[in-house]
Design a protein that fits this description.
With 801 residues, this protein is α+β, with helices and mostly antiparallel strands. It contains 15 helices and 29 strands. Strands 2, 3, 4, 5, 6, 7, 8, 9, 10, 11 and 12 form an eleven-stranded mixed sheet that branches. A six-stranded antiparallel sheet has the order 19-29-20-25-26-27, covered by helices on one side. It is globular and about 80 Å long.
């Protein structure tokens, strides 16, 4: 029976191998097990060995460095006529090709999903960012396994793979230590990951992960800066791979979070740009447009689109506003130039190893257009706009010199975003217009691309990067990957353009959609809706997303900047393209359209590890719990209790905290006194504290957060009790309604990231014994299970006294 089973198993393997060979070498991954070609006798002496042949990359396959920056407009950088010197980008442009009609999706996570897979963002269930997912196939943020990544294909064909920097492709409720981890970088074909999961990163105190393990940056190093740390890790790994496996090619996906807000930069880099933007954004647009024409980036007959009335003219501001706004742009420029410099260090390391000639570098300058999310006056703290809470300009003016430092989470005004998108209309989020979707792209490969410094004008899209990578490596997306049938690649390889500047574009049709702003490109024509809401408006307007949008029409084959609307002159062409959009929308899971924004930040609308629970128990050292996996404390009453042992001599430290310097709350002991602190997006701060230090011994601390009700973002009365006796009471006059943080977490027993209050420094570990922390939501009657959990906790406290 055993021999028969062995024969059947052998036959099964052989059949699988035959089917794979018939289908083609690339049709199935992983490749089928190889049959044993040696000989097995009764003893080793009577036998012949045969090791299975391990997969090797195709002969001559290049190394690949894929770079993606964040929130950088078409006209920001020097190779595309912009004001910000980016020497690495220039170096690569002079050695390779500049693409002047390359497009993204208008927003972060969607662009990144399309980049990794070669499929449209809605096909990848990533029609929006991770924090806004809704329960529809194009929007649930659960990228299907049928959308395999180029990294998985390369890894299974002999490449080393690594991802550095920004992720923003892990669903909100998957991003905790409980996983699941299949949509983390290490589950998508990357052998190594060093970076952050969310949309933002504090360059001074990032929420880092190494693979799936949360790690903390050195809080005691005043010179720590994330972009430099990121490049250090990339260089170290490339050198290690060269030393250990010099013949094995690698792909490094390097996705700095710069220049997304917060715009952080070292002081000496900010100083380099002093006075460079005093002329203002209107003059800057004109200067950039003139340079673009001189450089051949835009056609000689291109038109500069006018500044919309919703963006104030530079000359309409007084001297104080101009001074602050110029400083904000100086900081942004410094952040981007500094990040670009770090990328140059990586190139230098590759060149020192003698591998730059056969290294394909794809450098995408921005995952969407420049961001207008900074409001007309800019922001000290991006969390303010996330919660629809205005900042006082007088405070921004007072703290102007702090911009870019550890104490700010800053963003520049919308006028600069518009200037960075010259010569186009609109900005990030607006998928209907090139200001939201047109990004600079440079491709360099010295061993293959000979037209050094050449310009390519073919229409291309971010979905074209994956098929380009596969073609240059001699690979293709298999029909089945890890047992899952694959969706066809929806992008088009760009390799045909490497040697032929005049080759017709092979990417002939492309839809765009974000927040119901939509467009369709087809053979040189674009039909686009007119946006009904401004990018810096966080609350959606109550309009019909179908009939409430006007349509525009552009012949972009002759109108580079979408400056001349032909809708009235060409109604038949407009109708043809409108109909085509609905065909593509149905094909790629774009429907249903939804124009809401901040409303979708509500974690309760998505699957959750916390749904249905009203009591939560935590223990000291449980940190870095993301908002999507923590109790939702917004717009409701709640209580938090802690069972503590206070040693002789008193104690201080964090009991629990959520968020940090830019928004959040904390419960801690300071000088032995219990303190509850509520930080309202850095606009207001509320502290309720006991008068006396806790005596040595056992104590139960309880904070009762009694929400006023009557809507969202209302106030609350906060009472602190110690051992069932009230010791302090106070008011929180207003609360944040939508999001606690973008890059900070819920922590117990210590604080990670930044402090919620400036009265302590992280990590501020609780120095006594923190036995447990309980959180109870609302005032509703608890379930029997919850009551039992509380009873046991109380019993444990009683027994320990």
């Amino acid at each position: 029976m055993t021999r028969r089973m062995t024969l059947l198993a052998t036959a099964s393997v052989a059949l699988t191998t035959i089917l794979a060979l018939r289908a083609g070498a690339q049709e199935v991954l992983p490749q089928p097990e190889q049959s044993f070609k040696g000989h097995i006798g009764r003893t080793a002496k009577d036998s012949t060995t045969d090791f299975p042949k391990e997969v090797q990359a195709p002969k001559g396959a290049p190394n690949i460095l894929l770079i993606l920056t964040d929130d950088v407009g078409f006209a920001a950088t020097s190779p595309f006529g912009g004001p910000i010197p980016t020497t690495t980008f220039e170096r690569l442009a002079n050695a390779g090709l500049r693409y002047t009609q390359f497009h993204t999706t208008a927003l972060c996570s969607p662009t990144r999903a399309a980049l990794l897979t070669g499929r449209n963002h809605h096909s990848c269930a990533t029609g929006v960012i991770m924090e806004l997912g809704t329960g529809y196939p194009g929007y649930n943020t659960l990228m299907p396994r049928s959308c395999g990544t180029f990294a998985e294909v390369l890894k299974q064909n002999g490449y080393n793979t690594a991802w550095y920097g920004k992720n923003h492709n892990v669903p909100d409720w998957h991003s905790s230590q409980a996983g699941p981890f299949d949509l983390w970088p290490t589950g998508l074909g990357f052998e190594y990951f060093y970076g952050f999961l969310g949309g933002d990163a504090n360059q001074w105190a990032p929420a880092l992960f190494e693979n799936t393990q949360p790690i903390e940056p050195p809080h005691d190093d005043p010179d720590y800066f994330f972009d430099k740390d990121l490049a250090d890790h990339a260089i170290a790994r490339i050198r290690m791979l060269r030393a250990v496996a010099p013949d094995k090619p690698w792909i490094q996906y390097y996705a700095t979070g710069t220049a997304h807000a917060p715009h952080h930069a070292p002081k000496d880099w900010i100083a380099k740009f002093k006075g460079m933007f005093d002329q203002g954004w209107d003059k800057m647009r004109e200067e950039s447009f003139a340079r673009q024409k001189r450089m051949g980036i835009v056609p000689a007959d291109a038109k500069l689109t006018p500044r919309p009335a919703e963006i104030p003219a530079w000359d309409s501001f007084d001297a104080d506003h101009k001074k602050v706004f110029a400083r904000m742009m100086e900081v942004y420029a410094a952040a981007l130039a500094h990040a670009d410099y770090q990328m140059g260090r990586i190139l230098d390391a590759v060149e020192e190893m003698g591998e730059l000639d056969n290294t394909l570098v794809i450098y995408i300058q921005g995952d969407n257009g420049a961001s207008a999310e900074g409001t007309p006056q800019g922001l000290l703290n991006e969390m303010a706009i996330m919660n629809n809470i205005p900042e006082d300009f007088s405070q921004i003016l007072r703290r102007m010199d702090e911009l870019g430092s550890v104490t700010t989470y800053n963003h520049y005004p919308v006028g600069w975003a518009h200037a960075m998108d010259t010569p186009f209309q609109w900005t990030k989020q607006i998928a209907s217009h090139f200001g939201g979707t047109r990004n600079g792209l440079v491709i360099s490969w010295p061993a293959r691309i000979k037209d050094k410094g050449g310009i390519r004008t073919q229409f291309h899209h971010v979905t074209d990067i994956a098929p380009t990578i596969l073609e240059v490596t001699g690979l293709q997306m298999p029909a089945a990957l890890n047992g899952v049938p694959q969706k066809p690649i929806e992008g088009t390889s760009m390799v045909y353009s490497f040697d032929d500047a005049r080759a017709p574009s092979k990417h002939r049709m492309q839809y765009f959609e974000m927040f119901a702003n939509r467009a369709i490109y087809s053979d040189g024509w674009v039909a686009a809706t007119t946006p009904t809401a401004l990018p810096w408006e966080v609350l959606a307007k109550d309009i019909d997303v179908i009939s409430g949008f006007k349509w525009e029409l552009y012949n972009v084959a002759n109108d580079f900047s979408q400056a001349v609307d032909l809708a009235d002159k060409e109604p038949a062409k407009l109708r043809e393209l409108q109909d085509l959009f609905w065909v593509e929308a149905s094909k790629y899971n774009v429907l249903p359209l939804d124009n809401s924004k901040v409303e979708r930040f509500d974690v309760s609308i998505r699957p959750s590890l916390t749904r249905g629970r009203s009591v939560f128990t935590y223990y000291a050292g449980q940190t870095r719990i993301p908002e999507g996996a923590a109790p939702d404390l917004k717009n409701k009453s709640w209580k938090i209790g802690a069972d503590v042992d206070i040693p002789a001599g008193g104690v201080g430290g964090v009991i629990a905290t959520q968020g940090g310097r830019f928004n959040g709350w904390g419960l801690y002991l300071l000088g032995g006194r219990p303190v509850f602190h509520y930080n309202l997006v850095g606009v207001d701060w509320f502290t309720i504290a006991g008068n006396d230090a806790l005596a040595p011994g056992k104590h139960v601390i309880l904070v009762d957060f009694k929400y006023d009700g009557g809507g969202i973002g209302k106030g609350a009365t906060v009472t602190i009790n110690v051992d069932d006796k009230p010791v302090a009471e106070g008011r929180v006059n207003r609360t944040y309604a939508f999001r606690t943080a973008l890059d900070e977490t819920f922590d117990v027993g210590e604080d990670t990231g930044t402090p919620v209050s400036e009265s302590y420094r992280v990590p501020f570990k609780f120095a006594g014994r923190l036995n447990r922390v309980l959180i109870r939501l609302g005032d509703e009657k608890l379930s029997a299970e919850d009551e039992e959990q509380i009873r046991r906790a109380k019993a444990a406290i009683t027994l320990s006294q």
